[in-house]
Amino acid sequence: MSDSITGRAAGGPNADQIQYWNAQAGPKWVAAEALLDAQIGSLGLRAMERARVAPGEAVLDVGCGCGHTTLQLAEKVGHRGSVTGIDVSRVMLERARSRSAHCGNVRFENVDAQTAALPAAGFDLVFSRFGVMFFADPEAAFANLRTSLRPGGRLSFVCWQELGRNPWMRVPLAAAAAHVPLPAPPAPGAPGPFSFADADRVRRILTGAGFAKVACEAVDETLLIAGGGDLGRTVEFALQLGPVGALLREAGDGEREAVAGAVRDALAAYVTPEGVRMDAAAWFFTGAA
After folding, report:
1. SS3 label, residue 48
2. How many domains does the structure of the chain reveal?
3. Residue 121 above 60 pLDDT?
């Protein structure tokens, strides 16, 4: 395994995100872990294919959450390799550690990738599945991550394109907006799920952080929302997570009931025999140290 990582995931420039992923989002993601992994797992695997993960490599999994991708990477690198998962959410890492107790080539650290003292030249690959869009200063974060890569090391991650190209999030949000006022839109590039929607901006961030051979690939995929659950489970999933979940955080019972009905009506149009299928759009980014 690589050298230990130091730096507590508390305070600092990402304090708001750290608070959010510990007090609000983290417990919900743990509760919906299996549904989320089933829904977005294929995009993570495709990003791993582009990363060319090889046996014996040391991998840093950024924003590893409950450890699904960390375990997949560990299987690919085998017993001669190692994977270190890092995340700011203690509750998600507790789940990650419990599900990986049998795996000798995996460890998890509760640190902030932007500020942690990462082992210099400790990894062959820095990877992330939707875990790198939440930095207050993304160029500083990626510069820090680059120092952890060995000469010839690679970067590979998947992130969301804009909300308008992701009906699986846009449609329920639009339905909810008829009953609950939408907050003011975040500033362009503000930390959040769509902060990397502008591919040209991400290229500038990565090159500014010192990465070479930066490449971006657009991917469109149809997702089984909530992992293929029935309409009722999918509606509850939408009410708990993502933009609608954030919108309902301060809503009353009456507003929540109205939103649930509107979201159900909106998602009913996407029901298939396998579950609720909706389009999604993401970016695959790769780079070299």
Report:
1. helix
2. 1
3. yes
